[in-house]
Structure formats: structure tokens, C-alpha cells
Specification:
5% strand; mainly alpha; 59% helix; single chain; 192 residues; 10 helices
């Protein structure tokens, strides 16, 4: 199966979006690092490791350093969460769709690029998929499979949806950049 991932798995903050232009907005490195970390890694860094997980990672569970790291991660995640809450719900949702790592079918990545998750999550796309199912124009069982089917058929709606997704990304990234200001990234740094 031909699948592609949005970012390199071997690096924690190897976000695909830093320096990427969405309309007139360029994603800054600090914003990219924060959003990538928040939507993909913060949940695991904000929890205490079990003894088994720590043993597998060759770390000691619940040591003072581990507790301090967890507390720092919680504090930093709360800062990012507060910034996201200051945005409109739509902008926060678009950022979640843009930055949450998922494995996408190759044809979708090729057609939509880094905004594939946003296209798949657009209300219009989801509504059109439900309509297509109700009218029995498709037998696919997910929006992703339906989009892949439409890419194979070179559907004219794909260009419109990609343009809508890029506009939504432009708005959401600009809103987050404004909310975070010029401060340095709040992502906890890994200890070497």
C-alpha cells in the first residue's frame, strides 16, 4: 500500500510546515515546533511513565527529574492550549487537522500536500461525502477512501477544496502567530 506520513518520525519536532507559505502567511519555526509538539507529543510527555514503559525506554520512572520534566511539559502545554483557546474554534480545529500526524494514502498526499488533513476535515467535504453515500454515488466507508476515489477520477471539486483548505490554514496560522507573539518556543527541550 502506498502511504506517506506528514513528518519524519525519527525527530520530535521535524514539522513539515516550518517555512511553508499558506497564502501570505509563512509558518514560523517556533510556532511550527509548538504546534507539532502539542498535537503529537505533549500528551505522552505530560504523563508519568509506568515502570514497564520506563524500563523499555531505559529511564527510571518517577524520579525527581522525571517529575520535574512532566511538570514542565504540563506547564508548557497549558501555555499552548491557552493560545489555542484564544482563537476561534474553527482556527483551532484547522491547526489540529494540519498538525496532527496521520498516515495518509499516497495519492491524497500527492494531490493535497501538507493540507491533506485539513481538506479531509472540511465541513463541506464531510457533508458532500455523506450526501454521496445517501445518494449511493459511493460505497466507500470513510471520507479518506472517498477522497482517494475522487482523486482517481480527477474530480473538479478537488481544486476548490484544496483552495478552501489553504485559505483556512492561512487564517488559522496567522491567528496563532498573532496569539503567540515573538516569544521563543515553549516546547520543552530534550536533554542529551
Amino acid at each position: 500500500m502506498n502511504e506517506q506520513v506528514a513528518r519524519k518520525a525519527e525527530t520530535r519536532t521535524a514539522g513539515l510546515h516550518a517555512g511553508h507559505r499558506f497564502g501570505e502567511v509563512v509558518v514560523g519555526a517556533a510556532a511550527d515546533e509548538e504546534l507539532t509538539w502539542f498535537f503529537n507529543d505533549a500528551g505522552t510527555e505530560c504523563t508519568h511513565r509506568s515502570r514497564l514503559a520506563a524500563a523499555l525506554d531505559r529511564h527510571r520512572p518517577n524520579t525527581a527529574a522525571a517529575l520535574v520534566n512532566c511538570a514542565e511539559a504540563i506547564h508548557q502545554a497549558r501555555k499552548i492550549s491557552d493560545r489555542l483557546e484564544s482563537l476561534t474554534p474553527r482556527d483551532a480545529h484547522v491547526l489540529r487537522l494540519l498538525y496532527t500526524d496521520r498516515v495518509w494514502p499516497g495519492p491524497l498526499v500527492k494531490r493535497f500536500g501538507p493540507v491533506v488533513g485539513v481538506v479531509e476535515g472540511l465541513v463541506r467535504v464531510r457533508a458532500d461525502y455523506v450526501t454521496a453515500r445517501m445518494e449511493q454515488r459511493t460505497t466507500t466507508t470513510s471520507t479518506t477512501a472517498w477522497l482517494e476515489e475522487l482523486v482517481g477520477r480527477c474530480c473538479k471539486d478537488l481544486a476548490v477544496w484544496r483552495r478552501d483548505a489553504l485559505a483556512a490554514c492561512e487564517q488559522a496560522v496567522a491567528a496563532y502567530e498573532k496569539a503567540r507573539g515573538d516569544d521563543p518556543s515553549v516546547v520543552p527541550q530534550e536533554e542529551l
